[in-house]
Amino acid sequence: MPSFPPVTSRALAILLAGDHRTSTELAALAGLKPGTISAYLTGQRKTLSMENLFRFASLLGIEPATVMDAMLLASRLGSGATRSRPALVPALGRLTEEIVAERLPGLLEESDAREARRRAQELWSGLRDRSVADWRFVFTKLPRLVSWAVCEMLAEKSADAASDDADRALELATLALWVAERVPDEASPSRQACIAFARACLGNALRVKSKLRSADEALDLALRQWQEAERAGTTGFLDGSRLLDLQASLRIGQRRLAEARDLLGRAAVLAPAGLPLGRILIIDAYALELMGDYGGAVKTLQHATLLIPETEIRLRWVVQFNRMVNLCHIHRAAVAARMLPELRSLAVRINYKLDQVRLRWLEGKIDAGIGRTQEAVEALSWVRAKFADDGIRYDEALVSTELAGLYLEQGRTADVKRLVRLMAPVFAAEDVHAEAQKALGLFRRAVELETVTVELVRRLVAYLYRAQHDPELRFEEETECA
After folding, report:
1. Which of 5, 20, 248, 471 could join 433 in a cystine, given CB atoms 3.0 to 4.6 angstroms apart?
2. How far apart (Å, rounded) are the C-alpha atoms in residues 399 and 3?
3. What is the span of the domain harbouring residue 373?
């Protein structure tokens, strides 16, 4: 017989004491016999598992974070405490008061931070569709609205916009920096920390605008400023791992993949669990995808899925979409097909135009992978036309070669020749780098000479995916490795 209840039993006693419900009432909620919870509380006849502790807490309407606080309190109970719950409660009460007093300053700061972020989100709800001039006018008239939380919110909104609208991302990042420069000197996080955070997101916006040198300069300066604020202990509740993951995204754009993964490893150590760590894993999976490690990317994205909250619709879309693309790469289109309904639902909720096009592209890839060739042709033809109309030439080249492969499988050589004629703007596009142009030139000549094969097209598709962010990768090297 244990001399003292185990920590899970003590934690449950704390939760019940705070909730003012009896063990009999909890047993009824859980559908258990009346004496079962009492047996768990004493630890004499039943050992309470972590799984059951969280299940009972959920029945009481208690958040997981509160359960962990109760575990902390319970772990500090000394071995001299009594076994029975009635005698345990006064001791728990005294211990709770002691720890609350110890943690009160930090708890108050966390509460203030949550409130500041809530107010920033309310401001976004009211002004999200207004011009930058309107935002600045409001802040000039009501300077009390300027805060570190507003700076953080605008910077993150810039990062969110980067995948769909590079101009909007740059606009919001510039506004975030303008706000950061007006944060009061005595604020926590400090003005310098806010400036560093906003400048990092400005560097990210410059990256998606393909201004890589300016992005590099902005991110390097942001990290130096952040390190100074860190040494001064004034970074407050801003997440320093964010600067590292944004710099990693730039390194991926520069094809410095090993360096990017090193930065992501450092960011993962600093990042709080949940959304920040999930976002880091998404970026790492993308680096693995560019390295051709599609299986590793799928596994990493599976881990990321568990860390993205339900409320983060955009990130849930990204992680699901990328997972399905990588499944197609490793010839598991049938698995990806089962995930389509959820991805379509997310796409409707986000309602980004480019996401809708990419979803249709993915549907075509899945159709091709499961043998629905005609449906794949229809989907990819529509996507190719959209990219052509919007002047997104590299993606047009990619989907065109995928479509050419399907035509060849159907023996439609005349359609392949017609497709090459439609690709004329791609062969002259500045945003299709020289090595990719050489590879596409080989494809065009093979079509003209009627020597093109399905295998050549497959190698070309694999090359174009990997060369998208690596202007120095040569098609000949890729074919030798195939």
Report:
1. 471
2. 69
3. 366-482
Separation CA 457–CA 420 (nearest Å): 13
Q: Can you tell me the distance from the alpha carbon of 245 to that of 259, in angstroms, rounded to the nearest whole number?
A: 11
pLDDT tens digits for 219-255? 999 999 999 999 999 999 999 999 999 999 999 888 8
Q: Which of 113, 132, 163 is the last residue of a domain?
A: 113
How many C-beta atoms lie closer than 10 Å to residue 481's C-beta?
11
Helices (H) and strands (E) in the chain, counts: 26, 0
- Answer yes or no: is 450 within a domain: yes
- Residue 433 near residue 470 (C-beta atoms within 8 A): no
Q: Which domain-ending residue is among 67, 90, 113?
A: 113
Among left, alpha and beta (phi > 0; psi -120 to 50; other), residue 187 is: beta
- CB-based burial label for 102 (10 Å; 0-12, 13-18, 19+): exposed
Has residue 77 been placed in a domain?
yes
Q: Is a pLDDT exceeding 80 seen at residue 104?
A: no
pLDDT of residue 72: 67
> Which residues are CB-contacts of 23 (< 8 A; sequence separation ≥ 6)?
16, 37, 38, 41, 85
Cβ neighbours of 33 (radius 10 Å):
12
Among candidates 255, 225, 258, which has minimal Cα distance to 243?
225
Query: Residue 268 falls within a domain, yes or no?
Result: no
| 426: in domain | yes
Q: How many domains does the chain have?
A: 2
- 332 or 33, which is more confident: 332
Contact at 8 Å (CB) between 187 and 147? yes
Q: What is the CATH number of the domain that holds 107?
A: 1.10.260
